[in-house]
Amino acid sequence: MSSFLSIDPQYLASQYTQIERAGTDKLLSAKSNQFSAQLNAIKKLQTALKDFSTQLKDFRSSADSSLLANTASSSSESTLSVKAGSTAVAGSYDVFVEQLAQNHQLALSFDPAATLATDGEFSIDLAGNSFSVDLAGLPANATVTELAAAINNHVDNPGVSATLMRSGTETFLVISSDDSGAANQLSLNFTAGTDPAGADISTALAGQQELKKAQDAIVRLGSDSAISVTSASNSLSGVIEGVTIDLLKVQTTGDSPVSIKVGQDDEAISSKLQQFVDGVNGIIGSINKDSNLNSDSMARSIQNQLRSAFQGTFEGSTLYSVGLEFDRNGKLNINSKRFEQALAADPAKLDAMLSSDTGVLAKLETSLEPYSKNFGLLNDKTKTLQASLDLVTEKQKRHDYSMELTYKRYLGQFTQMQVTIAQLESSLGQF
After folding, report:
1. How far apart are CA 279 and CA 419, in angstroms?
2. Same domain, 422 and 381
3. Which of 97, 158, 222, 279 could form a disulfide with 52 if both were Cys (CB 3.0 to 4.6 A apart)?
4. For residue 212, which phi and psi values (nearest 5 degrees)?
């Protein structure tokens, strides 16, 4: 007699378990997706906000925390180059380069293979600061190579460099001051000991050659002026306010003075400001585009803080009057016409409105700090969302374990049912 009932215990247990767990799985999955999406959105916002806050902080703490920018040009870039800072004043200036600054450099002739004396002191004085190399402290059979190393590595070295140079069959110990300027004069001396080989050093000192003399840079201001400026360095930062002049070549009699022109760089100023406008728009735009942020109260608060930072007056004027405005979509824009007019009328006032300690950038930095700092509100928000996600994950684990037991229970029941059916079939088969 054929079987009237056939069942698969594993299949049935799986199907019944799946039916029983489906509702809870769907609920927990939805919660997990919700918290994950919110967490990822907040983390992206947190990164963007930190990056923008760092940009603000770095700019405001820099040596030149001004949005103003100037440009400078030289009529002879091979003679001198120029760079203008924010405090430079527009105008034309003439400079004649009479002399470049030099470091002091002396050369002493040595036999490179000759062994130095085993005692005595080789002394170097630089602008009144002196130190000595005790030859007794050099390695055995030391040559001029070890003397140069001892000079460079001396603990009391105030700024002297020693190196070896070769010309034909001669080797020279070249000693140089690291810094240029007439004040950085070198003076060499040797106090002999008992070793007769010390005479070689005394002979080298007696025949020393001055490769470069210590001297200041000298420039003459104006085309017909007798006013001269001296500098220990070839980089002059105080001759023309806000302008750094790097001297490159000496001029000769009959040369025309180099013309330096300084002017306001409106394009660079607009570019600087645009970077901060883009930063504001980037954060506002990311909040508007992400439903997880758009519906989040803290994200909306950040958006409101950004907008409110531009409200009120700065130096007695509104930011709208100088070209900064929000459009109907909440995007911050620069009205070029109003901005250029404000820049032309009073650049110092405009800069104060934007980048001073009471300007809009400072206000933005202060407004965003509670959210952007390491232990700020957004950090707390991410911790709360992560904790909620972890709780859902833990509930899912417990649910999986519970459903595993349910599956085993169903499997046991259907397995017993299969056994019972088999027994019934066997009994019926006897008739």
Report:
1. 72
2. yes
3. 279
4. -140, 140
Q: pTM for this one? A: 0.69
Contacts of 300 (CB under 8 A, 6+ apart): 287, 294
| Listed residue (28, 46, 47, 48) closest to 36, CA to CA | 28
DSSP-assigned letter for residue 311? -
Same domain, 406 and 343: yes
Residue 323 burial (10 A CB sphere; 0-12, 13-18, 19+): buried
- pLDDT of 143-153, one tens digit each? 999 999 999 99
What is residue 431's predicted lDDT score, i.e. its pLDDT?
64
42 with 381: CB under 8 angstroms? yes
Helices 377-428, 297-308: inter-axial angle, 10-degree rounding: 160
Averaged pLDDT for residues 224-243:
90
Regarding whether 222 and 146 lie in a shared domain, the answer is no
Tell me: do 250 and 291 sit in the same domain.
no
Angle formed at CA 227 by CA 222 and CA 232, multiple of 5 degrees:
105
Same domain, 294 and 409: yes
Within 10 Å of residue 341's Cβ, how many Cβ atoms? 14
Give the whole-angstrom CA distance, residue 172 versus residue 319: 67
**Structural domain containing residue 387:** 1-69+265-431
